[in-house]
Structures are given as C-alpha cells and as structure tokens.
Amino acid sequence: MSAATITPTSLPPDRARTLAAEFGLKGDEYDRVLAILGRTPSLTELGIFSVMWSEHCSYKSSRVWLRELPTKAPWVIHGPGENAGVIAIGDGLAAIFKMESHNHPSFIEPYQGAATGVGGILRDVFTMGARPIANLNALRFGSMENPRTRRIVDGVVRGIGGYGNCVGVPTVGGEVNFHPAYDGNPLVNAMTVGIARADRIFLSAAAGVGNPVVYVGSKTGRDGIHGATMASAEFSEDAEEKRPTVQIGDPFAEKLLIEACLELMETDAIVAIQDMGAAGLTSSSVEMAGKGGVGIELIMDNVPQREEGMTAYEMMLSESQERMLMVLKPGQEHIAQAIFEKWELDFAVIGHLTDTGRITLRHKGVLEADIPLAPLESEAPLYRRPTVETPKQPVLDAASIPDPVGIPAALTALIASPDLCSRRWIWDQYDSTVGGQTVRRPGAADAAIVRLEGLNRALAMTTDVTPRYCAADPEEGGKQAVAETWRNITATGAKPLAITDNMNFGNPERPEIMGQFAACIRGMKAACEALDYPVVSGNVSLYNETRGGVANPKSILPTPAIGGVGVLEDARQAVGLAPAEGATLVLIGETRGHLGQSLWLREIAGREEGAPPPVDLAAERQNGDFVREHILAGRITACHDVADGGLLVALAEMALAADRGLGLEPAPEGLPAHAWWYGEDQGRYVCATAAPDDLLAAARAAGLPARKVGTVATASRRALALPGEPAISLDALRAAHEGTLPAFMRDA
Questions:
Q1: Mean pLDDT, the chain, as a whole number?
Q2: 324 is a domain residue
Q3: Catalytic residue at 226?
Q4: Could you say which of 209, 407, 635, 708 is the most buried, measured as most Cβ atoms within 10 Å of its Cβ?
C-alpha cells in the first residue's frame, strides 16, 4: 500500500459515535466530522474534533454576537483574534492584555484551578512579546452561608497568590462578590497586562513550508486531558470527581519560560508562537497552521513526556501547563535550543510545516491523525440560538420604600456586608508591589496604577461588573459594566483606552440565557461606542450552571466581567481615594435616588427587585471628561466614583482611606434621605478639592450637576457627622468594614 493511501486506524463505528457523545459532540456535529473525513475517525482524530468544536474553543454559541462589539480605534494595534489585545500607549510602546476564565476547574480543585488560570493568562500575554507587569482578577463566590464557600475562597485566593507571587508579577487589583447564584459555579477570571515594543509584537500565524515546529517549556503529562470539554458542559452532582481534568501548575517553571521566551524574542529566530492553553497541543498546532493557511506534520515521539506510555491522543489533548509551540526560521534551532537549555527547560523539534493544508500526526511509525485544517475551522458549528428577552422590571418609587433602620445603622450594616466589606484579607495574600513600579496599591484608588519602568508614564487598570444589574436588565447591566471600568480609570486621572471582557453565563441552550448574553452585548456595544473604548480581547465561559434536576437548573447571574486599561502621561498626577485634611468634597453628577437593585434595598430592606439604575452614556462621557480634566489640572486632589452602596458608602470609603472624619451636608429637600445617601445613580464622582468654588463654577459652566457634600475633618475628629443624625464613629466603621472576611475565613 502506498503512503498516499494510508489512513489512520478508524474506531468501530458504534464505538466512535458513543465516544463522540461522551466527548461533547452532538449527533449532527459528529455527522459533520464523518463528512469532512469521509470515514470514521481514529480516537486521536475524534479527540481533536471534540476539543476544537467545544464551546470553550470554538465559541459556537457566542461568535455571532461577539462580532457586534466595536474593536477598532486609532490606538488599537491588534484586536480580538490573537492571543491578547494590543494597544499603542506612546513612546513606541504597546500594552498587551487579556482576561480569561478558569471557572469550572476552580470549583473542582480551587487552588490549582485558580493558579493555572493565572499561569494561562500570563502566557497569553508574554507569547506576544510582552513582559507582564500586572495581574488582576474578578472573583464571584457563593453565599457565605454555604459551607462550601469558605473552602473555595481559601483555595482560589491561595492559588492566585501562590502562582502570581512566585512568578514575580504583582497582583494589583480586582473585585470580589458573594451571591447564592454562584454556590455551584464560582467564577475565577484572571487578567494580565504586559508591555512590549510596538514594533516587536509576535503573532501566532504559522508561515514557511518546511519551517521547524518546536515545543518548549515543561514536559507533557496526563493532567488536564479533556479540560476544554469539561469547561463546555454544565456541572452535575459528580463534579468533584473530575479532578483529573484540572491542570497542575508550576510558577517557577513559568518564570523560567517567560525569561527564555523574551530572550529568544530578542533574536530573529521566531516566525510564530502560541501558548499551549485550552486543548493544549491540539489547539496551538491547529490554530497556528490554520491562521497561516499551511499544513503541519507532528512526530509525537519527539514530544517531551513526563509519564510512561503516553498515546498520541493523550499528548494532543493534555493541558499540562507552562508549554509553548513555536515555528522557527530554518537553521535557527540551535540558537533557541541553547537559550531554553540555559533556562533548564525542554526544547524539542516535533515537526514541520507542510503545503498540504492538513494536520498529520505520527507516533511510533503509525499515522494517528490526518485531518484537513480548513474545514476543521470553516465547518465548525456556529449557532444562532433562540433568545428570550429578560422581562423589564418596574422603576421603584423611592418615596414608597420605608427606611427600616435609619441612615447610621444602614451604613454600618452595608459596609460590613459581603459585597462591600474590606478585601484586605484577600489582597494581603498577594504581592502587589513586586517589581517596584506599583503606584497605587489595592484599595488606594478606584483603579490600580503601575508605572512603566524608566518612564513617568503609567497604566491604570481595573475589573468590574454588577451582576445583579445584568440579571434585572442585561442591556443596562452590560452598559454599566463597561461604564464602571471607564469611570474607575477616569477617577485616577488616566485616559481609558480599551477593554477586555470575560462573558460568564449559564447554559446557552436555554433561550433565556442566550437572551441575557445578546442583551449584555448590546449594552456593552453602546457603551464602548459612546466612550471610545473598544474591545480588543476577551473570553467566553458558558455552561456555568449546576443541575438541580433537569427541570430546575441553577445558573449563575449573567456576569460580563470587564477589564479596562488606560494611560496616564505622568504617574505623579494620579489621585487616589484619600482626601487631605480640610478638603471640600464635591459631588459631580445627578442624583435621583435610584434604589432599584441597590445594595441598600437588598441588605437593609430585604428586597431584590426593580429596574437597575439607567446609564446615561452622554452624561457618563461628559462627567468623566470633566473630572479627568480637573484632576490633571491639579484642581481635584482625590476622587472616588459612586457605585455599589451609593453616596454615603463612597464617602465612608474615602474617610477610611484618609483615616479622617467628615462633616457632611444635609440631603436635599424633596428626596428621601435614604434614597439620597444610598441610591445607586450612575455617572457620579466624589471629588476632593481645595478650591470648591472654582470647581463648582467650572461644573456650572459645563452644564453639569455639582454640589458640595462635605468637608474633611482634622485627624482628631474621627466620625462621620450627618446633620440631624447621631455621629458615626470612624473606628466603629473600620471595625465593621474590616472584620467580615477575617471572621468568615477564620476556620478555613
């Protein structure tokens, strides 16, 4: 038999169809595989199709909606489609960043799930030539009443800290929420920001028939096999039995890999480079060759292996960590090998590029797979699933909602609540200053500020989303998530430039879930366009749902987490939360006392209802541009956006940051006091200034709502003084604010 007629050994037809279903392929999807191959697949081929066509890798339910998002701007160098997004930030430099999820693994094995999530997003960034300068995260956990929650929080936080601290990249910001909707599906979204020369960006498209394909990094084991498939299905009661699908990370190997890759990138040896992330060697080889329009042949015997007797199927689907795939220029292998061996990492030539347009795999002289690449992508499933819109909830009349406890008691309860309590217990486990460039540490400002080494220029970065808004009105919630990160960055004085997203939702086969997804995308699109704030990278995580019986699935709240990045020309101009003694506090933005979906309504009145606060994007733009202008002019010396909990919570957080009391102005007439202090109207900032009359006059001239709301007391006055109310002790507030998480985690 000639080589041209050799085909891989097919599985028995019945066995192949059964395995296809176990691997997550629907019946019609498997029929498409048969049509592409013209025969029954081998085990390795079936594994390749199943992971490449999984929800996690193919975005088959979300691609039609993601195309609606704006992705271009003059400062965007590379948008979605590469390992990470790339924007120009001046001085010939680029910021490279992305957010990704490790949700399912973090429920099954919290420490390793979170740790390898950090490792994976780091690789997405440095594979493009960037040195990582900051990590952030967006975490959602179940109720504090759930006995599992403490264990998951403990493991996730230790995993993030353990990996990030060891690899030498500071963890500078993030957010944490607790809600019963996440009891069975915690969300662990990790974000990395890196810096590279704008003219030295490395891409993933393979080129050059005959060029060597090189494997570098750690050895391949059996951990993480079918991890992408596991992440593309909802959980059932046997979730914790899936531990073998969770990868094991080694941050010290990652550090070596970063340094080796960046050293090789200083040469002219690399044609293309790709992280081995979800689906491991399968996705990296298929995507690199597919993007380049070439073929690829791999000799699996050459793959560095840490376990005996590994099959081609296992090697292709393993998600062992700290590995990269490269295409090198011919004759440059010795340069690369010397670098990787110096850093004590594996290096192996495992194949070459071909002109066949196919991926072929050989192991021990046997052809294990032979698949045409073009249809593997072009004929991948693409669904426009049915959608059902979320019913609109009524706007609540604040005057009709009685205040059951009074203003002071509500503040103490709110600031101790799971969503507003201090996160110090968490961020103290992260090294936020390694590298020496962190200007604003966690809790000191609305966004983290990291200076670029050797320059005055700095990046501002943040993550945010309000899932309860998205559940009540996904379109408004999508707008608000984008606007909130824009506001966080603006409140430091930085110019917001672009976002990455992590779209966390339930089962897309349920029309109400796809309705949430589509509506969030509409809201995000509107906000990105209004704020000149494009999407340059992202991730979709679906099937975040646990079966409570087929008729009673329990889904997470719709959670389109947004990571924002902005630039500050001079880091010395950045402002934080803490106002100076004697400063006047001015509120910019309109307050109507919107209590629908507010934390006050939930935590104090015991109600979760109503429309969320509307987002006026024109007002967001106008208010934010005004605030940024006056920060950079030195007229605003501290700033905090008004968000969860409303105005009084924002003021209390500023008082705690400064460790000084405040003298507060009375609520305006015509608005219930609890609506004024705790309403969550959007587009607002509290600004500290030494020249309030000038700031108020400038706001009036710009047509912006602005009013004085308080003054900063001397250090000896340690209370929040509200007219007509008992003083609220700053020490009592701090104890309430900082006591919740340590008490909850005491027995972890």
A1: 94
A2: no
A3: no
A4: 407
